Amino acid sequence: MDEHKTHRNATPPVSGLSRREFVTTVAGAGAAFMIVPRHVLGRGFQAPSDTLNIAVAGIGGMGAVNAHAVMSQNIVAICDCDLGLLDGKLAEWSKAQPPRTRPPAPAAPETFKTWPKSKAQVAADERSPADEPYERLQKFVANQIPRLKKYQDYREMLDKQKDLDAVIVATPDHMHAIIASASMDVAKHVYVQKPLCWSVHEARHLAKKAATAKVVTQMGNQRHSNDEQRRGVEYILAGAIGEVREVHVWTNRPWGFWPQGIPRPAPANGAQPGWDNRGVAQRLAAAMSGNYPVPNGLNWDLFLGVAPKVDYHPIYHPFNWRGWVDWGQGALGDMGAHLIDFPMWALDLGLPTVIETESTPFNGATYPDATTTHYEFDKRGSLPPVTLTWYDGGLMPSDPPELEGGKLNPGGGILYVGKKGKLLQESAAPRLLPVSRHNEYGPPKEKLSRITHEAHEMNWVNTIKGKDQISCPFDYAAKLTETMLLGIASLRANSKLYYDAANMKVTNNPAADQFLTREYRQGWNL
Fold first, then answer.
1. CB-CB contact of 29 with 216 (8 Å)
2. For residue 189, how many C-alpha atoms fall within 13 Å in the half-sphere facing its CB?
3. In sequence order, what are the beta bridge partners of 220?
4. I need a labelling partner for 32 at 20 to 30 A (CA). Which of 96, 208, 251, 414 fits?
5. CA–CA gap between residue 416 and residue 249 (Å, rounded)
6. Separation of alpha carbons 411 and 398, rounded Å
7. Which long-range contacts (CB under 8 A, 24 or more apart) does 118-122 make?
8. E strands within 307-411?
9. Nearest-angstrom CA–CA distance, 139 and 412
10. Distances from the Cα of 397 to the Cαs of 337, 475, 523, in angstroms?
11. Would strands 166-169 and 53-57 be described as parallel, antiparallel, or unpaired?
12. Rounded CA gap, 189 and 50, in Å?
């Protein structure tokens, strides 16, 4: 696969630009633009390429991580429907202490040889040494927090904050598309935390808008920029395991991170329920129900946004929203963007033609405790058809005999089955199986570019400045996200789906098309 074709959005150079026009246009023009240092312009003048003015929508969880990664820039605004959470995060940052030095981890009893960093990654590290995270945070607290503007409603922020160049979107999944789309409408570069959006229709919308908006877009699946993960792709591209027709991908989530498989809180309806499965679910719903006032600072209507009206409950917010169908995409949406990504990339997969999800009991409100999704991908030119199986909630493939008594990591991974061998990509470096094959083969030839700056978020920033090539733009991210969301659609439809990707239609069960989109709540439009 030609990564440059897949991961580049070129824009012709334009002269005589304003600051906003500069960062909009330079994004795709690459390093042909000269990045002018601030000192060249003289005191009191700031080069348009020097720093970006960035807003962050959603500061809990990954929003805080994303913000921390770009603190070398000007974070001029933070928007969150929960001002209590926003103020708490700023206070936490203001009181942060220097990190303690951790003792080195004990060496693992590993018999696989490990390879040094890629030449490109070593060169990049030498060119772009990262600031210490704590030092960046200290500067942010001292210099930026006093000037920071706080908002609850992203629409007000986009309307009033005229100095913005770029927006990071790290809200619950159901609000990703509408905020990203509104940001592109006013020519802002956009970084959206994974998954890109909540529905297949939204993925198509964002890809289409990004193609015409002349802005730099990135989805926040940080592993896409990782050196070792790219090395795993290079093994496949090099033919190290031969023709690949079968892939297994798994995660242990939701594990203990958030609840799934539970009923929506609801008071008892008078009659005493039994102790069968339905009766126990009713008892759980009643046990969780109660009069929970909306916390001070939280605008619950803004949290709901495009989603249906539901009364506030502390089991929904913060963070647990991921397990609820109204707002999140469960384990598949959470980890699929990290794990399904690499087979999609390495095998140049298009959209699947057949999708079938099996699960533990599913009540339609929260995702089930565990699922397995089977995807079928058609032949692509000379590449053969591929079956990809996704597992979550503790389900996983059998341990391959080539591990020679070893066990797959239950936390998650990717197992490629090729005609000439197998490749395992878990949290560590990619490994050919068995160990003798891995050690004999050596590292694959570097075919993919390496990210030349210290973080996935900074890759986005530096691409806007013309210093880098974007890692995971919306044209690629939308296809990956659509694949994940088709697994959710099969679950919700309780049906195997035969999918016509060209027309975004399910051909064997037209009723399932409703799960490819959603009807927004009144007053909200994409």
1. no
2. 31
3. 193
4. 208
5. 9
6. 14
7. 118/227, 118/230, 118/231, 118/446, 118/450, 119/446, 120/446, 120/449, 120/450, 120/452, 121/227, 121/450
8. 354-359, 371-377, 386-391
9. 37
10. 19, 31, 45
11. parallel
12. 16
Contact 334, 325 (CB under 8 A): no
Is 4 exposed, middle or buried, given 0-12, 13-18 or 19+ CB atoms closer than 10 A? exposed
pLDDT over 80 (residue 100): no
In the structure, what pLDDT confidence band is assigned to residue 8 with cuts at 50, 70 and 90?
Answer: very low
Determine contact, residues 260/368, Cβ cutoff 8 Å: yes
Decide if 140 contacts 69 (C-beta within 8 A): no
Classify the C-alpha dihedral 287-291-294-296 as positive or negative.
negative
DSSP 366: B
Token pair for 191:
């970084």
Q: How many CA atoms lie within 13 A of 246 on its CB side?
A: 7
Residue type (1 letter), 436? S
Q: What are the tokens at 401?
A: 């005999």
β-bridge mates for residue 418, sequence order: 244
Give the tokens for residue 206: 């964002």
Q: Enumerate the H helices of 152-247 as residue ranges.
A: 154-160, 176-185, 200-213, 227-237
**What is the per-residue pLDDT for 416?**
98
Tokens found for residue 125: 């590290």
pLDDT in tens, 315-373: 999 889 999 999 999 999 999 999 999 999 999 999 999 999 999 999 999 999 999 99
Q: What is the pLDDT of residues 212-225, one digit of tens each?
A: 999 999 999 999 99
3-state secondary structure of 263: coil
For residue 115, the tally of other CB atoms under 10 A from its CB is 14
Predicted pLDDT of residue 27: 40
Phi–psi pair at 354, nearest 5 degrees: -135, 135
Helix axes 176-185, 200-213, angle to 10 degrees: 20
259: pLDDT strictly greater than 70: yes
